[in-house]
Amino acid sequence: MKKTAILTALAAITILASCAEVPDDVISRNNEREAQQNAAQTESKENEKVDFIDGEAVRADADEAIKMKLSNFTLRDGISVDLPKEFIHCDFVHMVDRSEEGKRLSELFFSEEELSKVNVEKHSERLSDVVDDENRPDPNIITSSGFHSEEAGLHFYVWDNGFICYMKPQFIVNFGDGTVIKEYNLDLGDDLSDKYTLSGKEVTVAAAAEKGQEWLDQIYKRQIEPEYDYKIKRISVVSDDLGELSFHLYACKVYNGVEIDSLCVKALDGVIYREVDSMELITADGSEFGWFSTGDGPVSTVLGNKVSQIVSLSSALKYIEKTFTDFDRVMTIDEINLIYTVSPQYDTESGMRYDSPGTKCTGSLAWEFVIDAPASQKSENSENCKYILIDAETGELDYQFDN
Q1: Residue 301, SS3?
Q2: Mind spelling out the 3-state secondary structure of 206-271?
Q3: Of 358, 364, 276, which is closest to residue 12 (Cα–Cα)?
Q4: Is the pLDDT of residue 236 over 80?
Q5: How far is CA 258 from CA 144, 247, 252, 282, 366, in A?
Q6: Residue 127 CA to its chain's centroid (Å)
Q7: Which phi and psi (to 5°) does residue 103 adopt?
């Protein structure tokens, strides 16, 4: 199992336009974004790709759309679409100076006895050799606060950009990728009554899901980032090198009833791709979470304005039906979601990091179609996920099928 999500994360305090005076640069970005959106909508309409409809008509259209009969795709039986009460455009930003909260955050995750064995200290680390501008702070040097003690079996760090990770003894001593025994997708209604033996105790997947949701609501939401809701999406049963089982729970942020995509647009050596960056909790006994990482995907809202029209789901389905005609079989659409996509705005060719503190990110509402496909054809970068995306604000198409 990949652990790329441990490298960094995005988190900050939500700043909505309605809560404070809107800065000039935000107004400028908003106007620029609106102009780009209008241009993209015009092009989509002229090319007859998709239809844009008023927000109040979207729900009725979606109800009819999931009844459509298609030739190249079939919709999973019982598929449904969750929609917010209103449609809001959001941009995002990486946090700055979160490492100042190291001591407070460590006290949420560790007992007094555990903390008596370690010291929370400040650290600086260079994440890239790229030098940006000699006249301003190097964005590739990041400050963190925390500790790492193999003797105590404890690990904890919070970075300036909001990334948080902690590990307890069972994971710091015997940490490995392990082998996935089985996966459960909560959105697909998988049966969670299966039992597994964790540290000598029988634990159901449902009990782990309930415990994880409680942790996110009571610890993370209440005491770290109350601006969002959190949702357990997937649970993996993993066997480590010694044959011991653990539950790995993956979650996402939800803003205004819309999931913030855990597949964040990034660049590596100038190549754009989307990579899984879910929040992750791991339990080895079913009662305590000995590992937690915020992942890279969660981000903080810096702008929210109502969108009057979005792409209708019915026209989005017709568009992908006309576009994708070369499959060797009828493909099943397992999920249809309205999500927020996240695209960091940085120089992808220079080697600069996408996750530097303060990096601005463009967000957009998008229709996501999750496609069922043989495991051998699924993409490594997206953690075995094939998808089609249609930007609901502009009509632009994106997809990932190939390895």
Answers
A1: strand
A2: HHHHHHHHHHHHHHHHHHCCCCCEEEEEEEEEEECCCCCEEEEEEEEEEECCEEECCEEEEEECCE
A3: 358
A4: yes
A5: 30, 26, 10, 25, 10
A6: 22
A7: -65, -45
**pLDDT band at 364, cuts 50/70/90?**
very high
Say what angle helices 55-65 and 313-323 make with each other, to 10 degrees: 50
* 3-state SS class at 185: strand
Tokens for 202, please give them. Answer: 């029988």
* C-alpha–C-alpha distance, residues 360 and 350, integer Å: 17
Contact indicator for 220, 294 with CB cutoff of 8 Å: no
In sequence order, the β-bridge partners of residue 252 are 231
Residues near 339 by beta carbon (within 8 Å), at least 6 away in sequence: 258, 259, 260, 261, 365, 366, 368
Report whether pLDDT(64) > 80: yes
Q: Confirm if 342 and 304 have CB atoms less than 8 A apart.
A: no
Q: What is the pLDDT of residue 203?
A: 97
Q: DSSP strand E in 3-140: where?
A: 52-54, 73-75, 88-93, 121-126
Q: Is 283 helix (H, G, I), strand (E, B) or coil?
A: strand
Query: Could you tell me the two tokens for 334?
Result: 């397992």
b (16+ CB within 10 A) / e for 54-78: ebeebeebbeebbeeeeeebebbee
Cα distance between residue 20 and residue 315, in whole Å: 37
Q: What percent of the chain has pLDDT over 70?
A: 72
Give the confidence band of 76 by pLDDT, cuts at 50, 70, 90. Answer: very high
Average pLDDT over residues 61-88: 94
Task: Give Cα separations from 275 to 5, 174, 180, 196, 242 (angstroms).
Answer: 9, 26, 19, 29, 29
DSSP state of 103: H
- Supply the pLDDT for residue 257: 92
Q: State residue 140's pLDDT score.
A: 63
Evaluate if residue 19 carries a pLDDT over 80.
no
For the chain, the maximum distance between any two Cα atoms, rounded to a whole number of angstroms, is 66
Pairing relationship of beta strands 309-311 and 360-371 according to DSSP bridges: unpaired
Is residue 308 exposed (0-12), middle (13-18) or buried (19+ Cβ within 10 Å)? exposed
H or E stretch covering 331 = strand 331-344
